[in-house]
Model the fold of this input.
Amino acid sequence: MRLDDTIAAVSTPRGKGGVAMLRVSGAEAVQICEKVFVPKNGKKLSDLSVRTAIYGAFFATEPDGSRVSVDDGIATVFHSPASFTGEDTVELCCHGGILLTETVLSALIAAGARLAEAGEFTRRAFLNGKMGLSAAEALGNLLEAQTHEQMALAHAGTGGRVEAKCREIYEALRDVLASIYARIDYPDEDLADLSREEMIDALSGCVRMLEALAATYRTGHAVAEGIATVICGKPNVGKSSLYNRIVGREAAIVTDVKGTTRDVLSETAALGRVTLRLYDTAGLHETSDPVEQIGIDRARRTMEDAELIFAVFDGTVEPDEEDLTLVNALQNSAATVVAVINKADLNCQSKAFYRAHFTHTVLLSAQNGNGMDELIRLVEEQFTAGEIDVRRDAVLTNARQNGAALSALTSLRHAVESLEVGLPTDVCCTDVEQAMEAISELDGRAVSEDIVSQIFARFCVGK
Ligand code: GDP
Done:
């Protein structure tokens, strides 16, 4: 991908709307836009000062070669480096017609711009040092956010908190390393370098900072990525009612006819602060209906990949053979299993049985919502660290960031150990350098082209 040419794309979603915005970025942005947009007051776009918006007409070329005005609108000029991408940028707002927007885009391409690839504006912002990689990932999450907590976490991340924390740890490590090298290079001189104990102390401080950062991924995963959650149980215990209660609307069909949920329904929903990637499954039971059987097989596979399972039981009746099969099947599950004893608005005679068989049980009524607070409290306790504030703290939000933090941590712990057992101080240098490399990967200062491409490919065109 070239990075020195000028790109253009429609930044608003495709469709009919009041206004559409096109973005043009690169060294030629202003010159290219001057061929398509003419200010009404006779000024030239290139004469405008920083971040000035101006009213004018859009022009396109007809098939016979004549230039015609196709719309009136606004252009805003951003001069490098004071723009989103760090390059000269022009944002053009025309009316939001589908054909009209395509016509303006085609005119920009004809005037010399290249159609931007997915995420290319943000990628340029990253490469021009306008934002770190974690901040760019947060921006992607902000566009995808489906819950308020996800949105708050993503917005905080775009401010570069993870980058700031990485920088703090990186600089502390660099100071220790400089001191070790000073000792190796000039062993006879007193360069006021650190004693072995002081090095251990300084590196242990960095280990603690990294541990605290890595620990935030628990919450970051629960909010940003979401917990794969399965609702299971035999037919008619209230699975669909619980699903609807969590998603806040009648998404699943609730009836007292067995086997109404035949496929796996899925949806992203908030449960307190936690995001659930929620799957409502067909009730697990023996059936001769081939369609229902496919649903049951899918339910089993979904359960194997789950991190959280809500096993729903009807508390008003004694557990039967099917309930017992589920109880047994869940005893060795790798997921966190919560036994939901449902229909608590009626007399729940079998609650003692489920409490004896599961570590986590919640008595609730999916019908009237009583007991949901307890379910929320339990899930938040299991999947987040309470002291973390997603609006304020540096929080790791994906497996890539977490992997880099853990790799830095392993190297640093190794460095501390080698100093503690009395190995020569230079032995720990390699470990400290590896830790610094991993931290640079985390915030994107040194990261492979492959990873960068993968991250920005997730974005839409125009972002
Ligand atoms: P599913 O087959 O497990 O998905 O169960 P549904 O959610 O379709 O519910 C089966 C029946 O139980 C329906 O008639 C619901 O109205 C009823 N039901 C579900 N939850 C409750 C509850 O908490 N209390 C009472 N009294 N009835 C419930």
Remarks:
- The longest strand covers residues 67-78.
- Residues 233, 235-241, 254-256, 261, 283, 342-343, 345-346, 365-367 surround guanosine-5'-diphosphate (CB under 6 Å).
- The CA atoms of residues 265 and 280 lie 5 Å apart.
